[in-house]
Design a protein that fits this description.
By secondary structure, the chain is mainly α. The protein folds into three domains: 20-108, no CATH class; 111-167, Roll (Structural Genomics Hypothetical 15.5 Kd Protein In mrcA-pckA Intergenic Region, Chain A), CATH 3.10.290.10; 168-219. The chain is 49% helix and 4% strand. The protein has helices spanning 20-32, 40-63, 70-85, 103-108, 111-117, 124-132, 172-194, 206-217, 221-224, and strands at 136-138, 141-143, 158-160. β1 and β2 (141-143) form a beta hairpin. α2 packs antiparallel against α3 (70-85) and α5 crosses α6. The protein is globular.
Amino acid sequence: MGHPKFARPKTQTPAHPWKAARIEEEHALKEQFGLKKVGGMREIWREKSALRRHRNQAMKLIGRVDSSEGHYAREKSDLVESMHRKGLLAEGSSIDDVLQISVEHMLARRLQSVVYYRGLAPSMRAARNMIVHGHISIGQQRMTVPGYKILRVEEESLNYSANSPYRDENHPFRVEMEQLRITRVSDEEEEIDEVGGIRATTDSDDFVKQIKADAAEAPTVEETIPEGADE
């Protein structure tokens, strides 16, 4: 049972501490989501443990033969609705979709990740620093926990804190970040242009029409060969 004053830890550590493939995967996740340089692995283990609990609950309900009625059906709908509120499932999903949730989805729902995705910080690391130093709030509540699981309804009220200097749109940080965002968007468009995406040439372009007309008027290879050259 354990002591009532001390709860058991909910985070499960890896069964084998020195698996090279797992360590490389976790290091990549740590860099991708800007986790702590020291102790970031434990943040990943925490999300994996939570994901494991969600999957176990879904598999138990899926395996029940009589889960289409009664309180089992209510547990199914409650689980799906809970995953939807947390932003892990889209609206209209089924309980089978719970098994498709990955650890990347769990990490993407952390407050740190959402702050970066919504354009309030230029990078994942910067988002973590801004949260820790009290520059981010949800409504009137200042948030200082980067690993907070933000709900879907809370995303609209996510903004800079009232007393944060970054709330001013003319702050040099905001101006520089907006310029960086525009540069990144233009770079992405240029990459698309190179592979024939947005600016792929069409028949309506005058330049293309001229090229096709010149190609049609140009003599063919057979016409350029003088008579008697084959002899």
